[in-house]
UniProtKB/TrEMBL annotation:
InterPro entries: Cation_antiport_E. Keywords: Cell membrane, Membrane, Transmembrane, Transmembrane helix. It holds the Pfam family MNHE. This is Na+/H+ ion antiporter subunit. The chain crosses the membrane at residues 6-29, 50-68. One of its GO terms (molecular function) is monoatomic cation transmembrane transporter activity. It is a multi-pass membrane protein.
């Protein structure tokens, strides 16, 4: 069953990358100067170091979001968003990726 969730994670992440890439390109083409960017703090339930590293990197590979730092207790990821109006969308996507990673363990 773990392999099913891993394949689903791979397909979902591929879809997310393409979709968010188009959205980030649209923001740039509209002439955004980055005035609406900012840092958010994402609380994670992931405890396994390998899954935490993978999750950190998956966030950074998504256009419009960049993992900046990890708290000393490994529970909070600091994420820079290109557009703070997309915070809810980011939280939905990150939550789904996190749940899929937890199911693969």
């Amino acid at each position: 069953m773990k392999i099913f969730y891993f394949i689903y994670l791979f397909l979902y992440f591929g879809y997310t990358i393409v979709r968010s890439g188009w959205l980030a390109a649209w923001v740039i083409l509209k002439g955004s100067r980055g005035d609406n960017g900012g840092i958010i703090y994402y609380q994670t339930q992931i405890t396994r170091p390998m899954h935490l590293v993978l999750f950190f990197n998956l966030i950074s590979m998504t256009p419009g979001a960049l993992s900046v730092d990890l708290s000393p207790d490994n529970k909070t990821i600091h994420v820079h968003l290109l557009d703070m109006n997309g915070e809810n969308t980011f939280l939905t996507i990150a939550g789904r990726i996190e749940r899929l990673l937890l199911k693969t363990s």
